[in-house]
Design goal:
Distance between the termini: 60 Å
Order of helices and strands: HHHEHHEHHEHEHEHEEEHHEEHEEH
Radius of gyration: 25 Å
Number of strands: 12
Strand content: 5-15%
Oligomer: single chain
Largest sheet: 7 strands, mixed
Bound molecules: pyridoxal-5'-phosphate
CATH superfamily of the largest domain: Type I PLP-dependent aspartate aminotransferase-like (Major domain)
Shape: globular
Length: about 500
C-alpha cells in the first residue's frame, strides 16, 4: 500500500479515508445492526478456531478485504449492544450523535495532555467539565477531568483523598516521599454493595484491599447511616484512620442509591473525603422525575460519572469532578516538555496535571455533541423511559408463576430468578439459573446477566436500551423458559 493512501492530507489519502469509513459503517449496519438476535451463540472454542490464521502475514491485504472479513468473523459474533434483548450489563447501545463524535475525535487524534496537542479540545473539555459541575450543583471552585471510566475516576478520587489526608494529618508529602509510617491504619468506608473498584483502588494505592471497610446496607440495599456511625466508632476505638467515605449512586446489581445527604453529614462530622461513585446513576441529574434521588451529591468532594452507561456514549467516556478544583494539586507535576511551570504562570492550560493518563482521548466531545443534539429534555426522556420499562418488567416478572422477583428495581436493573416450581429449594434454583444462563449464551435470543443474591444464583436484566419495549422483556422471559426446558431435558437424558 502506498503511504499516500494511508494518511489523511493528500487527495488520495482523503479519498481512501472516505471509502474506508463508508465501508466500515456499511459493515456495521449489515453484519451487526441488522441482525435479529443479540448474539450468534458461538462458543469460545468456535471463536478461537476461526482466528487461527496469522495476525501478521508476510504480505498485506487490501483494506476492504480485511474490513469485510472483520464484519464476517468479528462483528457477526459480537454482542449486539444495540439490540433491545441485549440486557446483561451496564453496556449501553451507543447513540448516533456519540458515534459521529467518535469519528470526529479519532480522526483528528487530539491529545489532551498539552494545549499544543489539542488547542480547541483543551478549552472545550474544560467547558464541558464546567457544565457537568453545574449539572451536579457543585459550586464555583469546582473542576474536573475526563477519564476512561468509573475505575479510573474512583482510583483518582481515592488517590487525592489519601494524599490530602496524609498531608494534613501526618504532614507527609506522599507524592515525593511515599506512604507515611502510619499507612497501615488508613481506612476507606463504603457499603457492602459498593463496586469492587474501591478495593482495587486501595490495592493500587498501596493500602491493600483490607483497608476498605464495608458497612451493612438497609432493606433497600442502601448504605445504612446508623451502621456507618457504629463502624466509624469502632474504627476510632481500634485506632484506625478512616479518611474517605465512598457512597454509591446506582449499585451494579440493584441500582440502589445510598442516602447521599445523610452520608455527606457523616463525612462532614468526621472530616472524611466524601466521594460519590455515580458511574451508573449520575445520569439521573438530567431527569426532572428522578433527579431528586441524587440530592446531597452537590456536597461531595468528588464525583465519578460515566458517559458510556446511562448517557449512551461509546466506550470509553467518564469524568471525575471535584468540588474544590484545588485538590488536583495533590497530584500535579510539571514535565518540562508538556507543562513547564512557566506555562502555568502564563495561563496556558495543560490538562496533563489533572490526569493519571498522559496521552489522553478527547472523549469530552461525545457528551458535548450528544447534549447539544438532544438537549436536557431529550437526554432525560431516554433515562426516564428505561426506568419506567424496568418497573413494567418487574411487574411482569412478579405476575409470572414461574419467575420470582428478587427486589423492586431502584433504577433500571431487574434481578429475578427462574423458579418453575414453588417447592424448588434454593440450591436447585441456583443450579438451574446458572445452567439457564449458560444455555442462553448458546441460544443467543437474549443476553442476560447472572449474579448472586444472598447466596442464590439469580438472573438480571439491565434495561438500558430506550428502544426496548415490554414485548422485548416478554420475549426474553420466553427465551429463558425455553432454555429452562432444554436444561431440564438434558438432565433427564443424563439421568
Ligand atoms: C461501571 C461502574 C464502575 C466501573 O466503571 P468503568 O467505567 O467500567 O471503569 C464503578 N462503579 C460503578 C458503580 C459502576 O457502575
Amino acid at each position: 500500500m502506498n503511504a499516500d493512501d494511508l494518511f489523511l492530507g493528500t487527495e488520495s489519502g482523503n479519498d481512501a479515508y472516505r471509502e474506508a469509513i463508508a465501508r466500515a459503517s456499511e459493515a456495521v449496519v449489515a453484519a451487526f445492526a441488522e441482525r435479529e438476535d443479540p448474539y450468534s451463540g458461538a462458543s469460545p472454542e468456535r471463536l478461537a478456531g476461526q482466528f487461527s490464521d496469522p495476525v501478521v502475514p508476510a504480505a498485506g491485504e487490501p483494506l476492504e478485504t480485511v474490513i469485510d472479513d472483520v464484519a464476517e468473523r468479528v462483528l457477526a459474533h459480537s454482542v449486539g449492544t444495540s439490540n433491545p434483548r441485549c440486557a446483561a450489563h451496564l453496556q449501553c447501545p451507543p447513540m448516533i450523535p456519540g458515534l459521529a463524535a467518535e469519528t470526529l475525535l479519532t480522526a483528528t487524534n487530539q491529545s489532551l495532555d498539552s494545549f499544543d496537542q489539542a488547542p480547541a479540545a483543551t478549552v472545550l473539555e474544560q467547558r464541558v467539565v464546567a457544565a457537568l459541575c453545574e449539572l451536579f450543583g457543585l459550586s464555583s471552585g469546582a473542576d474536573g477531568v475526563f477519564t476512561s471510566g468509573g475505575t479510573q475516576s474512583n482510583f483518582q478520587a481515592l488517590l487525592l483523598a489519601r494524599d490530602r489526608h496524609c498531608a494534613r494529618r501526618f504532614d507527609r508529602d506522599t507524592q515525593a516521599d511515599g506512604l507515611p509510617a502510619a499507612a497501615d491504619s488508613l481506612r476507606i468506608c463504603c457499603s457492602a454493595d459498593a463496586h469492587f473498584t474501591a478495593k482495587q483502588a486501595a490495592h493500587h494505592l498501596g493500602l491493600g484491599e483490607d483497608a476498605v471497610v464495608t458497612v451493612p446496607t438497609d432493606d433497600d440495599r442502601r448504605l445504612d447511616p446508623d451502621a456507618l456511625d457504629a463502624t466509624l466508632d469502632r474504627l476510632d476505638r481500634d485506632g484506625a484512620e478512616p479518611f474517605a467515605l465512598v457512597a454509591t449512586a446506582g449499585t451494579t446489581d440493584f441500582g440502589a442509591i445510598d442516602p447521599l445527604a445523610d452520608l455527606a453529614d457523616a463525612a462532614d462530622a468526621r472530616d472524611l473525603w466524601f466521594h460519590v461513585d455515580a458511574a451508573y446513576g449520575g445520569a439521573l441529574a438530567v431527569s426532572d422525575d428522578h433527579g431528586h434521588l441524587l440530592d446531597g451529591i452537590e456536597r461531595a468532594d468528588s464525583i465519578a460519572v460515566d458517559f458510556h452507561k446511562l448517557f449512551y456514549q461509546p466506550i470509553s467516556c467518564g469524568a471525575l469532578l471535584l468540588r474544590d478544583g484545588r485538590d488536583f494539586e495533590w497530584m500535579a507535576r510539571n514535565a518540562a516538555y508538556l507543562n513547564p511551570e512557566a506555562h502555568d504562570e502564563a495561563g496556558v492550560p495543560n490538562l496533563v496535571a489533572k490526569s493519571v493518563q498522559t496521552t489522553r482521548r478527547f472523549d469530552a466531545l461525545k457528551p458535548y455533541v450528544a447534549c447539544r443534539t438532544l438537549g436536557r429534555a431529550g437526554l432525560a426522556s431516554l433515562v426516564d423511559r428505561t426506568i419506567d420499562l424496568a418497573d413494567d418488567a418487574a411487574a411482569l416478572v412478579d405476575a409470572a408463576d414461574d419467575f420470582e422477583l428478587v427486589r423492586e428495581p431502584a433504577l433500571n436493573a431487574v434481578v429475578f430468578r427462574y423458579r418453575p416450581d414453588d417447592a424448588m429449594d434454593d440450591r436447585t434454583v441456583s443450579r438451574l439459573n446458572a445452567a439457564v444462563r449458560s444455555e442462553l449464551l448458546r441460544d443467543g435470543r437474549a443476553v442476560v446477566a447472572r449474579t448472586e443474591v444472598e447466596g442464590v444464583t439469580s438472573l438480571k436484566f439491565t434495561l438500558l436500551n430506550p428502544t426496548a419495549t415490554i414485548d422485548d422483556v416478554a420475549a426474553m422471559l420466553d427465551a429463558i423458559r425455553d432454555c429452562g426446558a432444554t436444561v431440564a431435558a438434558d438432565r433427564e437424558v443424563a439421568a
